[in-house]
């Protein structure tokens, strides 16, 4: 776990209005000690959301994995790679993290499952964010889906997902689909490791489980998507599907 001391923060950075304005995005997946998710959220939502954003980051989705209650999945963005470095320095050497890091780190088994991402070409950016604490369209939290593909080196299949594949996927799901690809620049803040390799990540927000279930059936029956999925499978591309529940301060994109 990251352990750093205090340092005087540098000048505050201009923060993009939401995740759609961020050229660099991290998808962070933490494995927590059993039963400590709410304990982490107590400090994360009260202190660490605002603390990170004051340092120059934009949080754009915080979730509990519905299939693993001890997994915390969250997204944060930056205006650029240089800004990412400065923002991380400001926060992790600053007073807020220094005051709360021990409590946060005590809940974590692993915090190194991180993908460093950028917009696809063409870009498929997320929509405006739901305001923190705003009620959803139903009494239940939104049903958020994340897909993370890992592409073997030398397959050159990223365009199959980010081009025509995105069009087919979005049409079948019936909701906007945000998508990112691996940021090729070196990780300039190595004290926070990121995963190697080529990845594509998609995020879609549904009003509830029923809307997602209908979309999933359409996707399974879509011959165009099945052809893409077969091509990816034959090339050794793996995919992880995550069913996510927003936290109270999630600020995920609206459906």
TrEMBL record:
SUPFAM superfamilies (UniProt xref): Dimeric alpha+beta barrel
One Pfam family, short name: NIPSNAP
Domain NIPSNAP: 25-120
InterPro entries in UniProt: Dimeric_a/b-barrel, NIPSNAP
Gene3D superfamilies in the cross-refs: 3.30.70.100
Protein's recorded name: NIPSNAP family containing protein
